Amino acid sequence: MSLFAMLFPGQGSQYVGMLSSFFYRSNNIFYNTFDEASEYIHFDLFKLIQEGPKFKLNESKYTQVAILTASVSIYRFWNYKHGKAPTFMSGHSLGEYSALVCSDSIKFSDALNFVFLRGQLMEEITINRPTLMQAIIGIDKKKAQTACSTIKSKKIVSLSSINSHNQIVISGDKSAVYKASLNCKKLGAKHIFTLNTNIPAHSKLMKPISEKLKKMLNMISVHPPKIPVINNVDVTSENNSENIKNALIRQIYSTVRWKEVIDFMKLKKNFVMLEIGPNKILTKLNKKDKKIISFSTNNLKNFLIAFKKINQGINEHK
Prior knowledge:
alpha/beta, Malonyl-Coenzyme A Acyl Carrier Protein, domain 2, 2 domains, 14 helices, 13% strand, disordered C terminus
């Protein structure tokens, strides 16, 4: 396996007890990384992910830093064991920040502070405004667009993410998303389920917070990634710091073009995908594509399986 890509998950992959096997059976990398993160946000992240409460972990400002820290911990452990470097990196939504940190484009501390604010501002959108995110299974992007465009009201519903050819996420005002999901059913959707998040991510509702995030992002140093990072909004790898920042700001209210990201990597002969995060959401998504070999690192057992498979014949002594 000479070519492989690392994928970093976004919000929704959190759960109480995540990474437990790493903490109890590996070295101090995980403890140290979570201690580092806790110091920057002035909150005990390790206690939160191990003990909960669940409602607190599901608050976006904590969810986002917890997932970022989990992904960075796993990546640091991969490097500690001298794992192979990927050809590409990409992250789904929030995961793009994890990818940029792991590719040495953004400092971990800067990313922590930024995504903590990002989560706070995204939550503020929902104050006194009911919102919803739903995954639509069984119809394509065109039909989902049609279902959303027929909603005639001042309420907002947007295509939040194109995860695969038949899995589309929509988000926005609760009533508009609900009506659009009914339209999706009429157009052939097989399943519709509500996502584990309290924010209308990647909808036009997020546009007002983009200016605040832009001001903070302009104070952060961004460097060319040492490993190419394919972004969500343009499906390109940027080396210019201003272009990277611009893509991150647009990402907050734009559709995540995940299917195109995966298609791009396949076009570049990357058919092995390694998910670096606390769950297996992106891995399960890829398993629908028979051309892709997918591995997860959500626990120590799966990490070691993936490590052996990807580094076979190269780091067998590790």
